[in-house]
């Protein structure tokens, strides 16, 4: 990559209340689509100006047009249909107490050959690039994030196993990337929280209920699919991995030393690794040694799950510690995840979001200016 962006943002920002209200009205048929589009445009304009004002080196549109960071599968893919609910156990720690909650979100299964219904990010980028002079990053799902839509009950007629689904998912993303590159996009980030499942026993057990070889295919053929996508000349490709983030809860507790050899060393075409590093779940910085030479490690040291703003000196100390394992000139700083992967995920105030992003910019420019 030609330039390292030292002060990074992951993707989503908190949606303003007026956008949440307008989306609900549009869903109920009470707001004209053209009027809703104008409201979305306003939210994006404000998100871009907000990031510019805080001094971030690269910006996103805040994912203001999305309901969730992946967007609902039924909105972007044909060939999927509701198939019950998915049982997920989310976890967090409060002091010395471990809290859990069970969520049963709608489950969508591949019921026939999947096809792209519409592009996810192309139109987002086309609009946002006209509204900012800053480098603009686009976020898209990784090819393995949708593999669990394969269902033993519903998908076998179209795909004999999850691995047979992977080429179609990859081709859909490849077409999106080509469209983005043709529009001038220079930085694309794959979001892949599911890759941290590969070293978490509870998540591995859940994957095995879908197919006994699913986790093996994710770490082998899935990583190769990722490499095959990150090949467009002139485009920087990033890979964001976290352990799930919903109202302060997470899905995985796998430290990076359990994942670095599986992922860091094998995702050879990825230029930038955006890594969650905000609490004990991440483990030490030693796994940064497994990154190939010349990559960029963006340290997600600022939490989007806690209201309190981290002390600058403590964050600088953590960067100093990380530089013992990977060159300081190949490091950068970001929040550990998006601030609102879903619109109702806000667990911190808007003031805290602003303070944390300002902190990212101030520390990054102090260290690397």
Overview of the molecule:
The chain has one domain: TIM Barrel, CATH 3.20.20.210. It is of the alpha/beta class. The protein is 34% helix and 18% strand. It is built from ten helices and ten strands. The protein has helices spanning 17-27, 33-54, 73-76, 122-128, 162-182, 201-210, 214-229, 260-263, 312-322, 350-368, and strands at residues 77-85, 88-94, 97-103, 106-116, 138-141, 187-191, 236-241, 272-276, 296-302, 331-335. The mean pLDDT is 90. The strands form three sheets. Strands 5-6-7-8-9-10 form a six-stranded parallel β-sheet. Strands 1-4 form a two-stranded antiparallel sheet.
What are the main properties of this structure?
single chain, 369 residues, alpha/beta, TIM Barrel, two-stranded antiparallel ribbon, 34% helix, 18% strand
Gap from first CA to last CA = 18 Å
Overall mean confidence score, pLDDT = 90
**Apparent shape:** globular
Supply the number of helical segments. 10
Helix content: 25-40%
- Any idea what the CATH architecture is? Alpha-Beta Barrel
Beta-strand portion reads 15-25%
Which strand order spans the largest sheet, edge to edge or round the barrel? 5-6-7-8-9-10
Number of domains: 1
* Spatial extent as radius of gyration: 20 Å
Structural class: alpha/beta
What letter string, H or E per element, gives the SSE order? HHHEEEEHEHEHHEHEEHEH
Using DSSP, what is the number of strands?
Answer: 10
Which parts are unreliable, with pLDDT below 50 for 5 consecutive residues or more?
none
- Major sheet, described briefly? 6 strands, parallel
CATH names the topology as TIM Barrel
CATH C-level class is: Alpha Beta
